[in-house]
Amino acid sequence: MWFSRATLNRLFLLALPMVVSQGALALMSFADRFFLSRISPVHVAASLGGGVSFWVCLCFFNGIAAYGNALVAQYFGRRDMRSCPRVVTQGIMLAVVAMPLLLLLAWPMLSLFEWMGHAPELVALEKPYFLTFMSGGFFFLVKTVLASYFSGIARPRVVMIADLIGVFLNIPLSYVLIFGRLGLPELGIVGAALGTVIACILSIAIYLLFYFNPIHARRFHLRKSFVFMPGIMRRYLRLGLPSGFEVLIGMGTFNVFLLMFQSYGVAEGAAMAIVFNWDMLSFVPLMGLNIALMSMIGRTVGAGDMSRTNEVISAGFVMAVSYAGVMGLCFVVFRESLLRMFATPGMDFSPILAVGAPMMIGMATYVVADGLILVCSGVLRGAGDTRWLMVASVSIHILTLIVQVFVIRVWQLGSLVSWYVFVAMLITNALLYLWRVMGSRWRHPERLARVMLE
Record's superkingdom (predicted)? Predict the structure, then answer.
């Protein structure tokens, strides 16, 4: 657990723009749900169910696309500048292939809301929110590919700039579209989703301005990058598919759990949406640290120099645990005040508060576990240990979902019992990942050499 100040500074400078970027995206979703809470608790609950269902459909392809960060970092560490933008070309090709598959997934997903026993008024809002997001699925994938590229070449400020501009557009745009201001029609929950899609397209435009900058284009031989490269595509799929499958099972089981939990009632569903809104503000910035660690470890793998890996990992643990500990303390001390921020004017908030307050305590318990999970997964993905991550994550999530089916459907236990089973799963996941990182198999020279093979 020793690290030099220089290592901590390098990780901090790389992670800070990514933390700001991911925090901005969390703020965007936070603002949308806050605006929707001004309409009704049903709108807040629907935004969680519909939004998570969209990310379940997208997450497999998005998980593959996001692995471009490690691929680019590995080529960048090897000083193979020509291959870095070729990863972007392969990623966009994958996004084109993914779009028709996403549209095919949309229709069976629509029936899932009713099958889970949601109230009719909830289903009526979840469906249009989900479909609006699905219509912009291609743009979200392209944005992930471009963000991963700039993270991989150690230019996180570009990601920060693009995301901040997107958020600064999204928040007022969503307000206008939700409530029908400036002569526009009042779109309600559809306006929240539409504003996010438009903001995503603007962020892509910002990325492309940096991508086609003449200085950047010459350094990375951009003109010769717009070709299909079988070797790079094979690496993308060989290392990215386990990541995509891991995220798919994780998000899929989480979505089924969430939809089952919402069958407890509107108050429970709204309480979960509010709690996860605050959870997102603590979790998503840690994703910035995860991306930074993936990039740093990827560059050491590409350069064939793993000598300072332990310093990077230790610095990552200190940053994650310190941040998560402070956030967890805030969630416990200010739990009722944080919940009341989403109270709909003129409506009785006490049923939501009764469920949400103990849930906030549970969330404070697992935020440190989230930090450990993200540090460990960033390190292992950067080193190409995606197959082990897939097996471990899939096993834990499927086991947890089976337990939740018994808790909610078979034994019909209370909502807080189900919630604390979820908390226990996250803590178990963190301990398993920590065990892997503290071992040595993932950093064996022969295994790392196979990671670089095309």
Answer: Bacteria
